[in-house]
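Handoff note, outgoing to incoming analyst
You'll be picking up this chain. Sequence as last confirmed:
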Amino acid sequence: MDARVKDLEMYAGGTVPPPDYSLETEVEGIRRVADEAGFDTFHLVGYSAGGASSLAYASRSPDRLRSLALMEPAWAGQEGQSPEEAAVFERFRAIPNLSPDRIMPEFVRTQLADGVEPAQPPPGPPPPGPPPPWMESRLAGIGGFLRAFDAYEPDFEVFRRFERPVYFALGGRGNPDLYARMATRLGGVFPDFTLEVYDDRHHFDPPHRIEPTRLAAALRELWARAESKDASSI
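Most recent structure output, in case you need it:
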């Protein structure tokens, strides 16, 4: 498979967030990378803010996607949100107003089920070399993403007509009022939707890091179904 890994546009320049940043910025970034790679159509996989960007791309350019895989997308619009899910996003919106030392702990805690503790870093010294540039900008990035999410609503009518297979990986130890409700919402919209629950995972302990073999098998199955749909339409 000819694959490309794409970083978020949020952290691609010298300023976080970039001037005039929106989810359309991420959509344009996905389009640019696909065009540069020569992909007329392609499979798209996204996690967290990358998942929100992938949903936004599916809303704008559905005909270019052969399949869509989402790993707890950070935003899926407001249409059909339950009061419980909406309340979680109200908690998120209050986070940028906290003192800097409280922002990341509250951001993490909001996404975990009661009684679940964040994953601890591995023992021993940190990896050699400087940390990735986005780590220094993540506090500014949180506020930038939240503003972008509030300003963007995907076209759910496009989703209802989207016949390509969609896969959603859900951690079983996350806040049940967030990604689980989001998955239920999207499952009622996309015609070909598969939900897989990773019981021991959460947003900061995700399957692509901890259970890559299982997730890879799920993605291969998703792509095979997409190829089968392609063959049957010929």
